[in-house]
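new request in #modeling-help
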Amino acid sequence: GDMARNLLNVEPSHEFEGRKDTEPDEHRAQRLTEEADLALLLVEPARSAMRSAGVESVFDDIELPLAPILAEMERTGIAVNVSALKGLSDGFDQAIRDVEAVVHSLAGEKFNIASPKQLQAVLFDKMGLKAGRKTKSGYSTDSTALEQVAAEMVSNGQDPAIVAGILEFRELTKLKATYTDALLNLVDPNTGRVHTTFNQTVAATGRLSSSDPNLQNIPVRTGIGRKIRRAFIPGPGKVLLSADYSQIELRVLAHYTEDPELLRAFREDEDIHRITASRIFGVPEDAVTPDQRRDAKTVNFAVLYGQSDFGLSAQLKIPRAEAKRYIEQYFERFPSVKDYIARTVVEARETGFVRTLSGRRRPVPEVNDRNFNIRNFGERAAVNSPIQGTAADIIKVAMIRLREELRKLGDPAVMLLQVHDELVLEVPPEQLESMSHLLREVMENAWPLNAPLKVDVKHGENWDEMA
DNA sequence: ACGATCACGTA
DNA sequence: AACGTACGTGATCGTG
C-alpha cells in the first residue's frame, strides 16, 4: 500500500493492513488480485529505489531467497502435545482460583486483580502501601514496582503475601491466556501442529518477527513457563534438533570494534562475562565471584543497548554512582567499544541511517531531533541496530545455505522455527549425528567475522529439554 | 468494534 | 517516542 502510494502515486482501493484472518473470501480475492497487479507494476521502481539505497544485494542474496524457506517453515508447522496443553490450562485455572481467593482475602474485598486501576486502588489507596513510579494514568503496578512494594513491606515488618499472590496471579493468567489457551485455539485439528507466520518486513533491524501465534516468545525463564515449552514436540518418529549461536551479538561487537581483548577472548573461547568482570572489578579472572560475573553480564548487555547509569543502577539494584563507575571502567578497559559507539552515532547523524554488515539500512532520523529524549533514543537505536541487524543477517544467510545443503542431501531434515539466534529442526533419529554436524558447520561459517562464531547444538523429545 | 494503556513473554 | 534494543499478545477500559 505504502509503496504503491510512494512509487506509483496510486491509491490502493483495498486496505492492506490489519489482520486478515476474519476477512470474507470475496474481499480477499479482490484484495489479492489488486496486490498482485500492483506488485508487478512496482518491480522496476522498487529495483531503482533499492539500487539508490545500496541494498540490492540484501534483497537479491538474502531476503528473496529466504522468503520461500520461511513459507515452507510456516507450511510445515510444529507439533504440539494437545492433551498436555489442556492439562496445563486446567492446572493453571485451578491455581488462579486459589491465588485469587488468597489475594481477595488479604485485601479484605473482591476485585479484579487483572485491572491495574483496581489494583492501584486496593494497594495504594485502601491498604496505604507506598506507591513508586508513576504511569500516564496513576501509579505503576508492574512486577518491578510490586517487588519494591514487597521489599518495603518486609522492612516495615509487614507480610508481603498479597504482593507475592498478585505476582503469582499475573504469571499464571499470562501463561494461560497468552500461551496454553491461545495455542490450543490455533492447533490444526487434522495435523496437531501450529503454523506461525514469519514476518519479513516488520522489524526495523532486519530481524524476523513471528505472529499468530508468536513462536518466538514461548516461555523459558521460569519453571512453570517451561512446562509450556515442553508441549512443543517432534512429529511421530522424529526428534527435535536445536542449534543456537553463543553470544552472537557480543561477537559481532568484537568484530566491529576490533577490540583486542574481546577478540582474544572469543578466539580462545574464554568466558566473556568473566573477562568483563575481571576488567571492571579489577580482580584476577580466577577470583571473579558468581555475583560479579552475573553483574558483568548485565553490563555487557547494557553497553550493547546504550543503557545509562540510571538504568543500570535500577537493574542491578545498586547506587547510581556505582553503576556509573562500572560503565566508566568498562569503557576504560575496552576503549575501542567507546570509539565504535562514537563513530556510529556520528555516521547516523551525518547520513541519517546506519548499516549492518550485509549493507542493510536502518534509518535513524531521530538522532538529529531537537528533543533530548528523542535524540538519545535515536542514538541508542543507531548503536544497537548494526549489532542486532548483523546477527539477523548471519542467521538468515545460514538458513539459506542450510536449505541448499539439505536439498542436496535429499531433505533429510526440515526447519521448523527461527528464534533470532536459534534454529529448530525436525529430524529422523538416524540423521541426528550428521544433521548436528551440518548445522554447526553451516551456522558457524555463514559469515566470516574477526571473532569466530560458536554454535551449541542440542536434541530432545521436546523443546524444553534443549533449552 | 476499536484503540489506548498497562503489563509481560522472548532474543 | 521517555533515562536498554527488537518484537507480539492479552485484559481492561474508555470511546465510538
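bot summary: DSSP finds 17 helices and 13 strands in chain A.
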